[in-house]
Amino acid sequence: MNFFKDKYNILGIVIYLAMLLSFYIPGVSREDSVLVYMAVFSVCFVVYWVLYKRNREMDIGVREVLYAAIVLRLLLIATEPVTSDDYYRYLWDGKVQNAGLDPFLYSPLELTELHDDVVYPNITFPEIKTIYPPVSQVIFLAAYFISPGSSAGLKFIYLIFDIGVMLFIFLSLKELKMRSGLLILYAFSPLILLEIFLNAHIDVILIFFLSGCVYFTIKKNPALSLLMLGFSVLSKTYTLIFLPVVLLYFFRYDKSINRIAKNFIFFLFPFLIIYFYRHGILNIFSVMENYMKHWYSNNLIYKIILYLSELTGVNDHSVTRIIMFALFVISYCILLIMNIDLIKKFTFIAIFYFLFSHTVHPWYLCILVMLLPLYLSYASFVWTGIIFLTNFTVYNYLKSGVWEDVYCILFMEYILLIFFLSIDLKKLKNISYKEPERSISV
Predict the structure, then answer these.
(1) What distance separates the 2 farthest-apart alpha carbons in the chain?
(2) Using alpha carbons only, what angle is made at residue 423 by residues 305 and 217, rounded to the nearest 5 degrees?
(3) 297 pairs with which residues across the strands?
(4) How far apart are CA 145 and CA 173, in angstroms?
(5) What would the pLDDT profile of 118-159 be if each residue is shown by its tens digit?
(6) What's the predicted TM-score (pTM) here?
């Protein structure tokens, strides 16, 4: 069915266009633009839900969906990010590499010869070296060549990768014999539009490689699956949590350790990129350690455990982080051995990873959006729909200069999340899974 033959689909896209044009209104202050962001997100999410409900049972024309999705993304390429300034670090890392320097070796503060009036003054924590892995660094360098002083170059590259994500999702839906209308859950997601193409976050790169990993795993092609996963890990390292899932998935069908070891080489192949950053790459571990020790935001479970530890006289964030890590490991091991299909394992491992993380920014959840068309988790759908409310923290920060979670928002977010997660898990218990037979590509 042609997507545009339904007048309500056309109306939905027109509403999207009108809302996204709000970011071009002149004279809006930085803090008020955060309110505009939240208003746009809420309206678009309602439209997004209606589009999904109307098309979920349809085999719609994927070409028309892609055209509409691309137009919405192009509309945001010329906008300036609103609720995050991470892109200044991306631009800086690209600038450093263009000067022939290793961003893992030097903090922005140290490279005084590269200081300017546009990028450098807006970098948060300029005394800290970069935390972004090599594949992300390659993207930063490429974006610098396209547009050195703005986010437009980044967004143009993101668009290319994002089209790839949508194609991988479509191919996965086709392989799983699911309706192509489900692609709407990714193509028109407000979280993807506003966090990737408005705020210019790099997460679409890891999503591209992870969506490729999912597709090639479904196709029983371990070599390409592990290759894509390797690139994903080098985009953002936390996707390493999916490696045991993929290896165990293939081990179920091929008990040959030698064959699995041979295919594992494809996972290691992307790590050759590290050679170009060999002089400073090890510094990433100290930066990540600093992040793990001192950052925490938007996680009610973390706050509750910290509060309980303070009641016992242990006012130590490291204890809280150890407890959170232990909870994740326990849930991870249970999910790893559960008899559920690949997509559900990916989904619930990602949910529990964020559930027990010390920091959960809105763009982190984009990975859940990528998995939504393949498995509609209520928890994922609701969480990616309400996470925008945490931007009240950004709004208050811009007003007062103090970064502090808004607790009424935090409680509402986690009560809804845990409620819908319990529904998901209850459904999971009642599912008996049997993987269809298919040979593995060598």
Answers:
(1) 64
(2) 95
(3) 359
(4) 36
(5) 899 999 889 999 999 999 999 999 999 999 889 999 999 999
(6) 0.93
